[in-house]
Specification:
Elements: H1 2-8, E1 11-15, H2 22-30, E2 36-40, H3 42-61, H4 84-94, H5 107-121, H6 130-142, H7 169-176, H8 202-207, H9 211-242, H10 251-256, H11 260-272, H12 290-293, H13 295-317, E3 325-327, E4 339-341, H14 348-380, H15 386-389, H16 392-407, H17 429-462, H18 466-469, H19 475-482, H20 498-510, H21 533-536
Parallel strand pairs: 1-2
Antiparallel strand pairs: 3-4
Length: about 550
């Protein structure tokens, strides 16, 4: 069995707590066959060991440590007994369920949430032990493999129960049905295996992070990157359909663009239009309507928001989260005295602000796409009657409304908790992440209408040889949409968008995010120089 598992592994990701990337996490989410293995680096193991050793010393002295030797929330002034009972009580308290009529996290999102959590543990700034880190790693590498025995342990993990001062409920639900019931790293089997034996504070540490919110957020952002690539193709197709001046994506326009994302968007759109007749034909207008003329700006604004959001997530998933914090020389050369204390480092406000920026940008882009689509319908319906008779303006408007509803920025006042359980503020990052996930489905429907209409207009204006007259980079997209078009049907036959939506979904899921920018620091804050993961994981500082 072990040999078979080794043969399946095609990618190994080493967690150092410093350089985990979004692309790696997308690979982890998409792997359900055990092909991507996650391991802790040696330096990360050493940090975790140092932190727990010092926590144990403080426990032996009788030091009050939040959630470790004391209860939590309003009961934090009460001490707790040693043993498993309190750990089980914490797990049961935080791991409750709605039980019905709820949405569930996909298994891949749960796996990513655990990997982010383990990578945060690799900082050596929480109270977890080396034993728990290895147990968690074992579950990450086995339970999400659909061919594994341990896959049967995976529960359905509910959404809609996080208020972002830590996700708490989702990771607790996942833990309760996995390592709390059965330990992979212990030798006992059958009835003797009653689950991992939690040390003081470890159960709380497993929920004391926004790792599930970050998992949902970054997987949506990765999908949005590929949607934006298709949006650039769609905008270029609209230029073809309008037969407008291509100056808006010319090299001259690129040179005067004010920021990097806009320059890049113009260059890519120009590349899609390579060898198009619009570069030599007389344009329909020397001054195209505003949303078409501004399409590079609007798309580039979305790219800018996405890149900022990626930077935020990258820094947070490679940093500390959790309460309490354990800080010593293994974290930073600047720390000379080992300290354990409370922090509010769930950073939900930063996540929320980054997500809100993305939601605003996606809303602007959705309105732009809808305006361009309705312009094409209204100005070409007399020549293509089915643009009117099939009521494509209704599908445009309904998909836009769905997109705008789910992309609406949540008011900050939602973060006010009125001192629930002793807490008074937690920005609604979890709700924003869930909303963005739904928004993207509506955005794909809106693009389906836009591309259907624009390709029909291109076909009507350029005739049977249309594909040979448009930009080389658009020809395959044009043909793929046309074979799924209403124009393949009799006017008396109803049309379904299903084939176009499925085509776009496949295109988005298969495309690699070529424009992704992984944010990596040149030097770690703790004074250790950043090095390759292979070198880092073979190095262990003198103790």
């Amino acid at each position: 069995l072990q040999l078979k598992q080794l043969e399946m592994i095609q990618q190994k990701i080493v967690l150092t707590g410093r350089d985990l990337t979004i692309n790696q996490l997308v690979d982890i989410a998409n792997d359900d066959k055990g092909e991507v293995e996650v391991v802790l680096g040696d330096l990360a193991k050493w940090r975790i060991e140092q932190a727990r050793e010092n926590v144990e010393k403080e426990i032996s002295k009788g030091t009050a440590i939040y959630g470790t030797t004391t209860r939590t929330g309003p009961e934090k002034g009460r001490s707790v007994p040693q043993g498993q009972e309190f750990q089980k009580e914490v797990a049961a308290g935080y791991g409750g369920r709605w039980g019905t009529d709820v949405e569930y996290f996909p298994a891949g999102t749960c796996r990513v949430g655990w990997v982010i959590l383990l990578n945060q543990f690799a900082q050596g700034s929480t109270i977890i032990s080396p034993e728990l880190s290895l147990e968690l790693c074992a579950w990450i590498n086995t339970a999400f493999n659909t061919d594994s025995y341990y896959h049967s342990f995976l529960p359905k993990v509910e959404k809609n129960a996080s208020i972002s001062y830590a996700d708490l409920t989702a990771p607790m639900q996942l833990m309760l049905d996995t390592l709390a019931k059965h330990s992979i790293t212990e030798e006992e089997s059958g009835d003797k295996n009653t689950g991992y034996k939690f040390k003081p504070g470890e159960v709380l540490a497993l929920g004391s992070s926004n790792s599930f919110t970050m998992a949902e957020m970054l997987l949506s952002i990765a999908k949005l990157e590929n949607i934006l690539k298709t949006c650039e193709e769609a905008a270029a197709m609209d230029i073809e359909a309008e037969r407008s001046t291509p100056f808006i994506v010319s090299k001259a326009a690129e040179e005067i663009a004010q920021w990097t994302e806009k320059k890049d968007a113009i260059a890519r759109m120009r590349d899609y239009l390579k060898d198009s007749k619009i570069w030599v034909d007389t344009p329909s207008s020397i001054h195209p309507f505003c949303t078409l003329r501004a399409s590079p700006d609007i798309i580039a604004s979305a790219w800018e928001a996405v890149n900022n959001c990626k930077k935020v997530v990258h820094e947070m998933m490679n940093g500390h989260q959790g309460n309490p914090a354990v800080v010593g020389f293994w974290n930073s050369y600047e720390v000379t005295e080992i300290q354990i204390g409370p922090v509010c480092s769930f950073d939900s406000t930063r996540l929320f602000c980054a997500l809100s920026n993305v939601q605003q940008a996606v809303s602007c882009l959705a309105v732009s796409i809808a305006q361009r689509t309705e312009h094409l319908i209204n100005n070409n319906g007399s020549n293509i009657p089915q643009l009117f008779s099939r009521r494509f303006e209704v599908f445009t408007e309904s998909s836009l409304r769905d997109c705008l509803m789910t992309a609406s920025v949540i008011p900050a006042v939602m973060g006010r908790m009125n001192c629930a359980a002793g807490y008074d503020w937690a920005a609604p990052a979890a709700q924003a992440a869930a909303a963005l996930d739904k928004c993207l489905a509506a955005a794909v429907r809106l693009m389906a209408v836009n591309l259907l209409v624009s390709c029909a207009v291109v076909r009507n204006k350029l005739g049977e040889q249309a594909v040979k007259q448009i930009g080389f980079g658009l020809q395959k997209l044009f043909e793929d949409i046309q074979i799924r078009s209403f124009e393949q049907l009799e006017p008396s036959q109803p049309f379904s968008f299903a084939n176009i939506i499925e085509y776009l979904q496949d295109k988005i899921s298969q495309d690699k995010a070529e424009h992704s920018k992984e944010i990596l620091n040149t030097q770690d804050d703790d004074g250790y120089d950043s090095v390759s993961s292979n070198y880092c994981d073979s190095f262990e500082p003198a103790r």
